[in-house]
Amino acid sequence: MTLTDPRITPARPDLAADFLAGTVAATRYVKARERRIVAASAPLRREPRPDAPLDTEALAGEAVRVFEEEEGWAWAQLAGDGYVGYLPVSTLGAIEPAPTHRVAVLRTFVYPGPSIKLPPVGALSLMAGVAVTGFEGDFARLADSSAIFARHLAFIGPPLADDFVTIAERFVGVPYLWGGKTSLGIDCSGLVQLALSAAAVEAPRDSDLQERALGSPLPITEEFTGLRRGDLVFWKGHVGIMVDSANLLHANGHHMATVIEPLAVATARIEAAGAGPVTSIKRL
Protein backbone atom coordinates (compact mmCIF):
# COMPACT_ATOMS: atom_id res chain seq x y z
CA MET A 1 0.00 0.00 0.00
CA THR A 2 1.10 3.55 -0.68
CA LEU A 3 -0.19 6.81 0.70
CA THR A 4 -1.21 7.96 -2.75
CA ASP A 5 -3.21 4.84 -3.64
CA PRO A 6 -6.56 6.48 -4.48
CA ARG A 7 -8.46 3.42 -3.25
CA ILE A 8 -7.39 4.07 0.34
CA THR A 9 -6.37 7.73 0.36
CA PRO A 10 -9.13 10.32 0.95
CA ALA A 11 -7.68 12.93 -1.36
CA ARG A 12 -8.87 14.64 -4.55
CA PRO A 13 -7.39 17.73 -6.23
CA ASP A 14 -10.15 19.88 -4.74
CA LEU A 15 -10.64 18.17 -1.37
CA ALA A 16 -8.75 15.98 1.08
CA ALA A 17 -8.95 14.76 4.67
CA ASP A 18 -7.54 17.21 7.20
CA PHE A 19 -4.94 14.71 8.42
CA LEU A 20 -3.40 14.72 4.93
CA ALA A 21 -2.60 18.43 5.00
CA GLY A 22 1.08 18.86 4.24
CA THR A 23 1.24 15.37 2.72
CA VAL A 24 -0.95 15.67 -0.38
CA ALA A 25 -1.93 18.72 -2.39
CA ALA A 26 -5.58 19.80 -2.36
CA THR A 27 -7.54 23.03 -2.62
CA ARG A 28 -9.01 22.52 0.85
CA TYR A 29 -8.88 20.05 3.72
CA VAL A 30 -11.84 19.01 5.85
CA LYS A 31 -12.43 17.10 9.05
CA ALA A 32 -14.54 13.99 8.57
CA ARG A 33 -17.98 13.53 10.07
CA GLU A 34 -18.58 10.12 11.60
CA ARG A 35 -21.58 8.26 10.17
CA ARG A 36 -22.76 4.67 10.11
CA ILE A 37 -24.32 2.43 7.44
CA VAL A 38 -28.02 1.99 8.22
CA ALA A 39 -29.00 0.14 5.04
CA ALA A 40 -28.58 -3.64 4.76
CA SER A 41 -25.62 -2.86 2.52
CA ALA A 42 -24.36 0.20 0.71
CA PRO A 43 -22.61 0.35 -2.67
CA LEU A 44 -19.33 2.25 -2.63
CA ARG A 45 -18.80 3.52 -6.16
CA ARG A 46 -15.88 5.06 -8.01
CA GLU A 47 -17.92 8.07 -9.09
CA PRO A 48 -21.09 9.73 -7.71
CA ARG A 49 -23.61 8.15 -10.02
CA PRO A 50 -25.63 4.91 -9.82
CA ASP A 51 -24.14 3.40 -12.99
CA ALA A 52 -20.53 3.93 -11.86
CA PRO A 53 -18.40 0.84 -11.20
CA LEU A 54 -18.99 -0.88 -7.85
CA ASP A 55 -15.68 -0.94 -5.96
CA THR A 56 -16.95 -2.57 -2.77
CA GLU A 57 -19.92 -2.77 -0.43
CA ALA A 58 -20.29 -1.61 3.16
CA LEU A 59 -22.47 -3.69 5.47
CA ALA A 60 -25.03 -2.48 7.98
CA GLY A 61 -23.38 -1.12 11.10
CA GLU A 62 -20.06 -0.19 9.48
CA ALA A 63 -18.58 3.15 10.54
CA VAL A 64 -17.85 5.66 7.80
CA ARG A 65 -15.89 8.91 7.67
CA VAL A 66 -17.72 11.41 5.46
CA PHE A 67 -15.83 14.33 3.91
CA GLU A 68 -18.47 15.73 1.56
CA GLU A 69 -22.17 15.34 0.75
CA GLU A 70 -23.47 16.60 -2.56
CA GLU A 71 -26.53 15.77 -4.68
CA GLY A 72 -27.35 12.61 -2.75
CA TRP A 73 -23.81 11.21 -2.65
CA ALA A 74 -21.28 11.15 0.17
CA TRP A 75 -17.58 11.08 -0.57
CA ALA A 76 -16.33 8.93 2.27
CA GLN A 77 -13.83 6.44 3.65
CA LEU A 78 -14.83 3.16 5.26
CA ALA A 79 -13.42 3.04 8.78
CA GLY A 80 -12.74 -0.70 8.61
CA ASP A 81 -10.54 -1.20 5.54
CA GLY A 82 -9.98 2.42 4.55
CA TYR A 83 -11.61 2.17 1.14
CA VAL A 84 -12.59 5.53 -0.38
CA GLY A 85 -15.46 6.27 -2.73
CA TYR A 86 -19.00 7.51 -3.09
CA LEU A 87 -21.91 6.18 -1.01
CA PRO A 88 -25.59 7.08 -1.35
CA VAL A 89 -26.43 9.52 1.43
CA SER A 90 -29.66 7.57 1.98
CA THR A 91 -27.63 4.62 3.33
CA LEU A 92 -26.03 6.69 6.10
CA GLY A 93 -27.23 7.48 9.61
CA ALA A 94 -26.00 8.61 12.99
CA ILE A 95 -22.85 7.02 14.40
CA GLU A 96 -24.79 6.02 17.52
CA PRO A 97 -25.97 3.55 18.60
CA ALA A 98 -22.95 1.41 17.87
CA PRO A 99 -23.55 -2.24 16.94
CA THR A 100 -23.54 -4.74 19.79
CA HIS A 101 -24.00 -7.87 17.67
CA ARG A 102 -23.34 -9.08 14.16
CA VAL A 103 -25.10 -11.51 11.88
CA ALA A 104 -23.51 -14.94 12.30
CA VAL A 105 -25.36 -16.80 9.53
CA LEU A 106 -25.23 -16.38 5.77
CA ARG A 107 -28.43 -14.31 5.73
CA THR A 108 -31.23 -13.51 8.14
CA PHE A 109 -34.57 -11.72 7.93
CA VAL A 110 -35.45 -8.54 9.77
CA TYR A 111 -39.03 -8.49 11.08
CA PRO A 112 -41.19 -5.58 12.25
CA GLY A 113 -41.78 -7.47 15.49
CA PRO A 114 -40.80 -10.66 17.33
CA SER A 115 -42.78 -13.16 15.22
CA ILE A 116 -41.89 -15.33 12.23
CA LYS A 117 -45.47 -14.84 10.98
CA LEU A 118 -44.91 -11.16 10.30
CA PRO A 119 -43.80 -10.18 6.79
CA PRO A 120 -40.07 -9.38 6.83
CA VAL A 121 -39.05 -5.76 6.30
CA GLY A 122 -35.54 -6.62 5.18
CA ALA A 123 -32.63 -9.05 5.34
CA LEU A 124 -29.05 -8.78 6.53
CA SER A 125 -25.97 -10.64 5.37
CA LEU A 126 -23.20 -12.32 7.34
CA MET A 127 -21.13 -9.84 9.40
CA ALA A 128 -23.69 -7.02 9.27
CA GLY A 129 -23.79 -5.19 12.59
CA VAL A 130 -26.89 -4.36 14.65
CA ALA A 131 -27.58 -2.62 17.94
CA VAL A 132 -29.59 -4.92 20.20
CA THR A 133 -31.64 -3.27 22.94
CA GLY A 134 -33.28 -6.36 24.43
CA PHE A 135 -34.73 -9.80 23.88
CA GLU A 136 -38.28 -11.10 23.49
CA GLY A 137 -38.55 -14.87 23.36
CA ASP A 138 -36.45 -16.11 20.45
CA PHE A 139 -35.92 -12.62 19.06
CA ALA A 140 -33.53 -9.75 19.58
CA ARG A 141 -35.04 -6.28 19.51
CA LEU A 142 -33.04 -3.68 17.64
CA ALA A 143 -32.70 0.03 18.30
CA ASP A 144 -35.31 0.82 15.61
CA SER A 145 -37.78 -1.65 17.25
CA SER A 146 -37.41 -4.25 14.51
CA ALA A 147 -36.52 -7.83 15.42
CA ILE A 148 -34.09 -10.57 14.33
CA PHE A 149 -34.00 -14.23 15.30
CA ALA A 150 -31.57 -14.06 18.22
CA ARG A 151 -29.69 -17.28 17.47
CA HIS A 152 -28.65 -15.78 14.13
CA LEU A 153 -26.61 -13.15 15.98
CA ALA A 154 -23.30 -13.16 17.87
CA PHE A 155 -21.62 -10.59 20.09
CA ILE A 156 -19.19 -8.28 18.32
CA GLY A 157 -15.64 -9.10 19.33
CA PRO A 158 -15.12 -12.88 19.57
CA PRO A 159 -14.47 -14.60 16.21
CA LEU A 160 -17.32 -16.49 14.60
CA ALA A 161 -14.88 -19.30 13.81
CA ASP A 162 -11.22 -20.08 14.34
CA ASP A 163 -11.02 -21.60 10.86
CA PHE A 164 -11.84 -18.83 8.38
CA VAL A 165 -12.28 -21.38 5.60
CA THR A 166 -15.46 -22.67 7.28
CA ILE A 167 -16.88 -19.16 6.89
CA ALA A 168 -15.88 -18.95 3.23
CA GLU A 169 -17.43 -22.37 2.55
CA ARG A 170 -20.84 -20.99 3.49
CA PHE A 171 -20.72 -18.87 0.34
CA VAL A 172 -20.47 -21.81 -2.08
CA GLY A 173 -23.18 -21.21 -4.68
CA VAL A 174 -23.46 -17.48 -4.00
CA PRO A 175 -23.35 -15.54 -7.31
CA TYR A 176 -20.21 -13.71 -8.36
CA LEU A 177 -20.54 -9.92 -8.22
CA TRP A 178 -17.67 -7.56 -8.96
CA GLY A 179 -17.24 -5.49 -5.80
CA GLY A 180 -19.76 -7.58 -3.87
CA LYS A 181 -19.44 -8.50 -0.20
CA THR A 182 -22.81 -10.04 0.68
CA SER A 183 -24.67 -13.32 0.39
CA LEU A 184 -26.46 -11.90 -2.67
CA GLY A 185 -23.18 -11.52 -4.54
CA ILE A 186 -19.49 -11.53 -3.73
CA ASP A 187 -16.15 -11.29 -5.49
CA CYS A 188 -12.88 -13.14 -4.91
CA SER A 189 -11.17 -10.65 -2.59
CA GLY A 190 -14.42 -9.75 -0.84
CA LEU A 191 -14.81 -13.42 0.08
CA VAL A 192 -11.30 -13.56 1.51
CA GLN A 193 -11.69 -10.31 3.43
CA LEU A 194 -15.11 -11.21 4.85
CA ALA A 195 -14.10 -14.73 5.89
CA LEU A 196 -10.92 -13.50 7.58
CA SER A 197 -12.84 -10.73 9.34
CA ALA A 198 -15.23 -13.32 10.77
CA ALA A 199 -12.16 -15.06 12.21
CA ALA A 200 -10.90 -11.76 13.68
CA VAL A 201 -8.15 -11.30 11.08
CA GLU A 202 -7.97 -7.90 9.38
CA ALA A 203 -7.34 -7.90 5.64
CA PRO A 204 -7.29 -5.27 2.89
CA ARG A 205 -10.10 -5.20 0.35
CA ASP A 206 -8.45 -5.93 -3.00
CA SER A 207 -6.45 -8.98 -4.06
CA ASP A 208 -3.25 -7.07 -4.87
CA LEU A 209 -3.32 -5.43 -1.43
CA GLN A 210 -4.03 -8.80 0.19
CA GLU A 211 -1.14 -10.40 -1.67
CA ARG A 212 1.25 -7.81 -0.23
CA ALA A 213 -0.15 -7.76 3.30
CA LEU A 214 -1.18 -11.29 4.20
CA GLY A 215 0.84 -14.31 5.26
CA SER A 216 4.24 -15.68 4.36
CA PRO A 217 5.17 -16.80 0.83
CA LEU A 218 5.36 -20.48 -0.07
CA PRO A 219 7.34 -21.95 -2.96
CA ILE A 220 5.32 -22.45 -6.13
CA THR A 221 6.00 -25.98 -7.36
CA GLU A 222 4.98 -27.40 -10.72
CA GLU A 223 2.47 -29.76 -9.06
CA PHE A 224 1.49 -27.33 -6.26
CA THR A 225 2.70 -29.73 -3.60
CA GLY A 226 2.74 -29.01 0.13
CA LEU A 227 -0.40 -26.89 0.24
CA ARG A 228 -2.92 -27.06 3.06
CA ARG A 229 -6.27 -25.73 4.15
CA GLY A 230 -6.30 -21.94 4.46
CA ASP A 231 -3.43 -21.20 2.07
CA LEU A 232 -4.18 -18.27 -0.26
CA VAL A 233 -3.42 -18.61 -3.97
CA PHE A 234 -2.95 -15.39 -5.95
CA TRP A 235 -3.04 -14.50 -9.61
CA LYS A 236 -2.88 -11.03 -11.10
CA GLY A 237 -6.28 -9.65 -10.04
CA HIS A 238 -7.57 -12.84 -8.44
CA VAL A 239 -7.33 -14.85 -5.22
CA GLY A 240 -8.66 -18.16 -3.94
CA ILE A 241 -8.59 -20.20 -0.73
CA MET A 242 -7.36 -23.77 -0.47
CA VAL A 243 -9.88 -26.02 1.31
CA ASP A 244 -7.38 -28.89 1.38
CA SER A 245 -4.13 -29.80 -0.38
CA ALA A 246 -5.73 -29.96 -3.85
CA ASN A 247 -8.98 -27.98 -4.02
CA LEU A 248 -9.58 -24.26 -4.36
CA LEU A 249 -12.55 -22.21 -3.11
CA HIS A 250 -13.06 -18.96 -4.99
CA ALA A 251 -15.67 -16.55 -6.29
CA ASN A 252 -14.96 -16.23 -9.99
CA GLY A 253 -16.27 -14.86 -13.25
CA HIS A 254 -15.94 -18.15 -15.15
CA HIS A 255 -18.64 -19.87 -13.12
CA MET A 256 -20.20 -16.53 -12.08
CA ALA A 257 -20.46 -18.13 -8.65
CA THR A 258 -18.47 -19.19 -5.62
CA VAL A 259 -17.25 -22.75 -6.22
CA ILE A 260 -14.82 -25.40 -5.04
CA GLU A 261 -12.76 -27.01 -7.81
CA PRO A 262 -9.35 -28.66 -8.22
CA LEU A 263 -6.56 -26.09 -8.13
CA ALA A 264 -4.98 -27.72 -11.17
CA VAL A 265 -8.18 -27.19 -13.17
CA ALA A 266 -8.48 -23.56 -12.10
CA THR A 267 -4.83 -22.71 -12.84
CA ALA A 268 -4.95 -24.28 -16.31
CA ARG A 269 -8.16 -22.45 -17.22
CA ILE A 270 -7.02 -19.09 -15.85
CA GLU A 271 -3.70 -19.26 -17.68
CA ALA A 272 -5.37 -20.39 -20.91
CA ALA A 273 -7.70 -17.39 -20.66
CA GLY A 274 -4.68 -15.09 -20.69
CA ALA A 275 -4.74 -14.07 -17.03
CA GLY A 276 -1.30 -15.53 -16.40
CA PRO A 277 0.13 -18.02 -13.91
CA VAL A 278 -0.09 -18.10 -10.14
CA THR A 279 1.89 -15.12 -8.82
CA SER A 280 2.20 -16.21 -5.20
CA ILE A 281 0.91 -18.57 -2.53
CA LYS A 282 0.65 -17.27 1.02
CA ARG A 283 0.25 -19.07 4.33
CA LEU A 284 -1.34 -17.20 7.21
UniProtKB/TrEMBL annotation:
One of its GO terms (biological process) is proteolysis. The keyword DNA-binding does not apply. InterPro entries: NLP_P60_dom (IPR000064), Papain-like_cys_pep_sf (IPR038765), PG_Endopeptidase_C40 (IPR051794), SH3_16 (IPR041382). Keywords: Hydrolase, Protease, Thiol protease. One of its GO terms (molecular function) is cysteine-type peptidase activity. Residues 158-284 form the NlpC/P60 domain. The keyword Protease applies. Belongs to the peptidase C40 family. This is Cell wall-associated NlpC family hydrolase. The lineage of its organism: Bacteria, Pseudomonadati, Pseudomonadota, Alphaproteobacteria, Hyphomicrobiales.
